[in-house]
Fold this protein.
Amino acid sequence: MGCTEGFGSFFITPQLSHFVDAYPAISVDILPLPHFISLSKREADIVIALERPEHGPYVCCKLCDYRLQLYATQDYLDKHPPVRRPADLGKHSFISYVDDLAFSSELLYLANVLPGASANLRSTSVIAQFVAAQQGRSLAILPCFLAAQDQRLLPVLPEEINITRQFWMYCREDLRKLKRITLLWDYIRAVTEQNQGLLMGESREMLFAD
């Protein structure tokens, strides 16, 4: 299964650890990578991506919406000018993507939400951004399913700054009816629906299938 780095590492991997317990005859390889994964080159059987494939012999469904918010540690907020409205953010520095190396325009949150904001630390990895934000030196726009699970990170201006994106799941038509693919496909759809609270920033707790 190929998927984006953050979702693959912080949501899909813990969920699939339960899946393989329930279906011990099925082994799963997880490819959480910060770039596109090609089904046409048979790099994976199922892909979860930020964008729907425009063409190809694929079966595709919208997996879920998810939300991103601006996060900081309490230590950062205590030591820097107060943030009461978006205009206050001009006094702050950010952690963000390397714009020229982002594999999808869907990742360019900072430039779209806060034009002119400066990032003093940039990375192609959302996990690197998450770890950097934990150090309490800068603000970061992060997926709620990642940041909300860490009690050290607090949402900043959650009503004003929140971004909704989608994940799409797809596989090749010739694989979709295979039993192992059907079981995994249905399982992922079920647990993402079960975790809408976490994905949308309304809960800090990940839930697992019974």
